[in-house]
Structure prediction request, 289 residues.
Amino acid sequence: MAQDIKKFENQIILGDCLEIMKTIPDNSVDMTFADPPFNLKKKYNHYEDSKEKEEYLNWCYRWIDEMVRITKPTGSIFVHNIPRWLTYFAEYLNKIAFFRHWIAWDSGGAPLGKTLLPNHYGILYYTKAKSPKEFKFYDIRAPHKRCRLCKGFLKDYGGKKDQMHPFGMLLSDVWTDIHRIRHKKRRDEHPCQLPVPLLERMILMTTDEGDIVLDPFVGTGTTAVAAKKLGRKYIGIDIDPQYIKITEKNLKQVEETKINGCYVSIYLDEIRTMRDKDFKEIWKNKDNL
Ligand SMILES: C[S@@+](CC[C@H](N)C(=O)[O-])C[C@H]1O[C@@H](n2cnc3c(N)ncnc32)[C@H](O)[C@@H]1O
Prediction:
């Protein structure tokens, strides 16, 4: 039976996401994000990552149904996976939610493959409402790309550098500026931990301070950490007690990241994403950034 959403706020829950999500009320969460096992025979402690195709897809459709059900009418649904599976998920989601974007995330990994080299992950972005007037969305900017050595701009924007935005471009649906965490010292003991700035970008784009973000496959807590850093509430679920422990430890260390009262995504001392509407406020004392 569905319980009061307040009971779930800022909780990291050990269990099967299908069972836990069943108890979450309809239309109660602002953003849902899922990064499920990809059925690629990865080594998880508590999950067998090699199902038959139909079995895997039917399992995925069940948690996708739950994500859509619990998302608010103003809310957003994101699903991260390899393109092969996303083609099926998109067909399924098209019947129960509204397609916004297929975000191509080039995570900077080494490509491997028998035909074209697979070099991006996809993030499906759907909303529960059809009209842009009905769902939350904020334009976001990422910094201009610069040469590591000379710090000059890598693009000349058709010779119109003087008209360039001082911070960076409005984002497109191709993200190449956020990389997987390769350094061991920045990683947890998890085979496929996502980088926090990736989640911060989606959270800044589709939610407000105090909103609730849910991840049914929270792993070592990337989504919950990103939500807390940005002043949002989180709900994280994972079937593995060890990952739950690491998530809880990670959450204890989180501090909110704000500049001049505006939430921003900062990683290794650099702003990775800001909302367009916050730019003027954030840029006021840009010399300190
Ligand atoms: C791809 S990983 C998610 C990684 C996460 N995004 C991160 O950055 O740490 C998938 C996770 O799903 C969990 N999992 C697998 N089956 C599950 C289930 N039925 N319910 C909840 N979690 C599950 C695994 O333990 C694993 O941590």
